[in-house]
């Protein structure tokens, strides 16, 4: 353990989408602070960095859970040894790298109802179902100090800059950042505010984190990275480590007087 920097040691956290690019980094960060971490994901194979931590004795467990299905969520919670006091809603579908059908990433007129439903469900419905069960378990446990962090996005605050993707259209892909992603991430901020009002008397703080674009070793198109970086004040995309301080701040009592807020960490993208 790196050390109890923010007083989280010994607590239990649940991270949905905890095997993804950002989620696995959040799991690692919490585990290194002595947090017992539970993961909900639609896969169970730990990435190497998390497997190494498990081998070293850090408490990380993953459950195969479809967060868009309440029964699956309930079963996942039933498997916990301890009721979590920290919840990070990090799961959700995003744009797949590479050419896609018009129904997924083409002009708005072609965007399909099925794609809309899958994106909204994976972000908003999933966060709703998991947060609801979190509150049920938290209230029955008698605990009074909880924190929920909903992962939003800069695209939940401002519309996607579609000119970033012009290079793809010039090479014939007809690509647009889809509408459902922005609506889902904006919805996460609305959910945050509602839950903060509800959770205040119960001792649960609820905040959102709005990260910017992240180069997490996913093989991003160099042209996309170049176009994106031109539009940030710091001249670069974020690395996954750039959000660790924000996660520790929001999860811990360091932010004990903060709720209903959205913490923006985007290299200045939304300040222009």
Properties at a glance:
globular, Rossmann fold, 9 helices, 7-stranded parallel beta sheet, oxidoreductase, Short-chain dehydrogenase, SDR_fam, 14% strand, alpha/beta, 272 residues
Q: CATH top level?
A: Alpha Beta
> Mean pLDDT, nearest integer?
94
CATH architecture descriptor name? 3-Layer(aba) Sandwich
Number of domains: 1
Low-confidence stretches: none
- The amount of beta strand, in percent, is 5-15%
Radius of gyration: 18 Å
CATH topology: Rossmann fold
- Write out the strand line-up for the largest beta sheet, numbering strands in chain order: 3-2-1-4-5-6-7
Largest sheet: 7 strands, parallel
Terminus-to-terminus distance: 39 Å
Keywords: Oxidoreductase
InterPro entries: NAD(P)-bd_dom_sf, SDR_fam
Protein name: Short-chain dehydrogenase
Organism: Candidatus Yanofskybacteria bacterium RIFCSPLOWO2_02_FULL_45_18
């Amino acid at each position: 353990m790196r050390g109890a920097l923010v007083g989280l040691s010994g607590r239990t956290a649940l991270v949905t989408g905890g095997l993804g690019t950002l989620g696995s980094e959040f799991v690692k960060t919490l585990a290194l602070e002595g947090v017992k971490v539970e993961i909900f994901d639609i896969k169970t194979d730990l990435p190497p960095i998390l497997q190494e931590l498990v081998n070293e004795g850090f408490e990380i467990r993953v459950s195969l859970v479809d967060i868009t299905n309440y029964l699956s969520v309930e079963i996942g919670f039933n498997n916990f040894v301890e009721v979590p006091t920290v919840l990070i809603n990090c799961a959700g579908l995003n744009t797949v790298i590479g050419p896609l059908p018009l129904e997924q990433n083409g002009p708005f007129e072609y965007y399909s109802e099925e794609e809309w439903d899958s994106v909204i469900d994976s972000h908003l419905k999933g966060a709703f179902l998991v947060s609801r069960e979190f509150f049920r378990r938290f209230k029955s446990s008698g605990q009074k100090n909880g924190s929920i962090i909903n992962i939003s996005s800069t695209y939940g605050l401002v519309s996607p800059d579609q000119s970033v993707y012009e290079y793809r259209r010039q090479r014939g892909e007809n690509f647009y950042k889809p509408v459902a992603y922005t609506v889902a991430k904006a919805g996460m901020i609305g959910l945050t505010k509602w839950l903060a009002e509800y959770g205040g008397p119960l001792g649960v703080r609820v905040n959102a984190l709005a990260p910017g674009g992240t180069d997490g070793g996913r093989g991003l198109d160099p042209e996309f990275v170049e176009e994106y970086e031109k539009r940030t004040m710091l001249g670069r995309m974020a690395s996954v480590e750039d959000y660790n301080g924000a996660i520790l701040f929001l999860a811990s009592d360091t932010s004990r007087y903060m709720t209903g807020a959205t913490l923006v960490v985007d290299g200045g993208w939304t300040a222009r």
